[in-house]
Write a structure and sequence with these properties.
single chain; alpha+beta; Rossmann fold; 5-stranded parallel sheet; 5-stranded antiparallel sheet; 22 strands
Length: 433
């Protein structure tokens, strides 16, 4: 089997790692692989060059293409590959609007009755400013288009919200992605990431996880693409997940099908678990990053089989996934200055003994080979720790993160802090009882 992975970040490295274990005999190809993806053959094409990639895949008899990032999906890579008669795991351009156009996603949810934050969309700064001053704060201002996970600004005051809207609509800090903004109420609760394999109508959730988007410990500082994640999450009870299926996943898929944009691929539901139940923060049309790096190491059953089935037009109805016991925590190592400007080309030292450990996995993201391994991005590496308990997984992840060296390394030492606090509380209550 010949498999092409489009994308070269930490999520794609985790996909490659898992798929190589599912099909060790397969031949793997990756678009401009990062410094840790040497097992795969390189394809010197940009992941967003959809026409060139479709032509290359057809010429090289690719059996299955798996698309990691959102940008090529939004540009129609699935449509281009399918037009060549090729199998691809990922939604069409029309279905990818669920992420690529937040205003569209909000309108779709409103039609489908899917619970989400109250919101309005604006293309005019003057209208956005009037609305902000009328409703007050806190608010969330979001670029409607794709902004690499950085286009959502939580604003504590009206002045902050006006400044965020001005930066997007007038200053153009997110380019075309910010030509329209969504201004929505600030929801309180705890976030949950639900990644689901979808065949158009049926959704099979993977193990729920929780992302840590803020740069600083204690969830302080600016939003990033994600500084770490963990799985499983105890608040994701069977009852909650049934509610998510019934009130969020199924109505959303039905609405997309009614829009003649059936979704086949990986649907990511970013949720806020509020006092009144789960509400959608956002939808993504692909595997999450860094959630994928925490979830896939816990998956014992094949990932390749359902991905290939969906890509071939098959169904996931009745699919049962098998998960290893225990927990996983992923700590992201970032460059100093991220999510703003940062330096690249800095040497990275990864101790050889990390590769020998069975409780630590290192997934590369912003790395490349140039007389050794060097930094090449804002998020550089993801260190996943595994353990029979979340506490042990956290310890393995942090220790692994501490042993890796590059100038300006930035990482959080508190990934999973909410879950660890819950466990400590339960432990104290049981002792007290």
């Amino acid at each position: 089997m010949r498999i092409l992975i489009v994308g070269n970040g930490g999520r794609e490295h985790a996909l490659l790692w898992k798929l190589m274990r599912d099909a060790p005999e397969a031949s793997f190809f990756v678009t401009r692989p990062n410094g840790g993806m040497g097992e795969a053959a390189p394809v010197d094409l940009d992941s967003a060059d959809v026409d060139a990639l479709a032509a290359w895949a057809a010429a090289n008899s690719i059996d299955l293409t798996i698309v990691g990032p959102e940008a090529p999906l939004a540009r129609g890579i699935t449509d281009a590959l399918q037009a060549c008669g090729l199998h691809v795991f990922g939604p069409t351009r029309a279905a990818a609007r669920i992420e690529a156009n937040k205003a569209y996603a909000k309108a779709l949810m409103a039609r489908a009755g899917v619970p989400t934050a109250r919101h309005l969309a604006f293309a005019s700064f003057a209208a956005a400013e009037r609305h902000i001053l009328e409703v007050g704060a806190p608010l969330v201002v979001k670029a409607s288009g794709l902004a690499s996970g950085k286009g959502s600004i939580v604003c504590a005051t009206p002045q902050e919200a006006v400044a965020a809207a001005r930066n997007m609509l007038v200053e153009g800090i997110f380019g075309d992605a910010g030509r329209e903004v969504v201004i929505e109420e600030f929801m309180t609760g705890e976030e949950l990431s639900v990644l689901a394999l979808v065949d158009g109508r049926t959704a099979i959730p993977l193990l729920p996880s929780q992302d840590h988007k803020r740069l600083g410990e204690g969830d302080a500082g600016p939003n990033t693409g994600g500084m770490g994640a963990y799985a499983p999450v105890s608040i994701a009870t069977d009852a909650l997940m049934e509610e998510v299926r019934r009130t969020i996943l199924e109505p959303t898929l039905a609405a997309l099908a009614d829009d003649e944009a059936p979704f086949r691929g990986l649907l990511y539901a970013g949720l806020m678990i509020t006092d009144t139940g789960p509400r959608v923060v956002e939808f993504n049309c692909r595997f999450g990053d860094p959630e994928t790096q925490a979830v896939l190491p816990l998956l014992e059953s094949s990932l390749l089989d359902p991905l290939a089935a969906v890509a071939a037009g098959g169904s996931v109805t009745g699919l049962r996934l098998c998960w290893r016991p225990g927990s996983a925590i992923t700590t992201v190592l970032a460059s100093d200055g991220y999510p703003g400007s940062y330096r690249s080309g800095l040497p990275i030292q990864i101790p050889e003994e990390l590769a020998a450990r069975d409780d630590v996995l290192v997934f590369h993201a912003g790395t490349r080979r140039a007389d050794g391994l060097v930094t090449a991005g804002g998020r550089v590496l993801a260190v996943t720790g595994l353990g029979p308990t979340l506490e042990r997984a956290a310890e393995a992840s942090r220790r692994g993160a501490e042993t890796i060296a590059f100038e300006g390394k930035v990482f959080r030492r508190d990934i999973g802090w909410r879950e660890l606090a819950r466990q400590n509380k339960r432990r104290k209550e049981s002792v007290g009882a």
